[in-house]
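QA checklist item 7 of 12: single-chain prediction sanity check.
[x] sequence parsed
[x] length recorded as 112
[x] structure emitted
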Amino acid sequence: MKYLLTDALYLNKISMDEEVICYIFKSAAGGEKYLVWLHISALFNEWKNQYGLDDTAMLKFLLKAMENELVGSAFRHRLTTFKINENTKPIIGFTHEDYDLESYYLDIPQAN
């Protein structure tokens, strides 16, 4: 089943050393909405500087960084949360130009 990204936004900061990002997906089949909250530690600024990314590019970069976990979660719940800790390694060789946020979707196989 396809899940289309309908919005990606930064939420209010919980603390000075953490960012919270919300990705909103919509089921292509029934139109149900699914929220993904991503908490990221100080790595946010480190990766942003390391890769020379602006805020929009960071939305793309982080979405791609957790893509495998999103597919694995299969949107079993309407709200899914992820946390990227200080010891998480960035994707080697990834560039944020790999895709466009406006047409991003996940194709998740249905469970039998």
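[x] summary fact logged: The mean pLDDT is 84.
[ ] second reviewer sign-off
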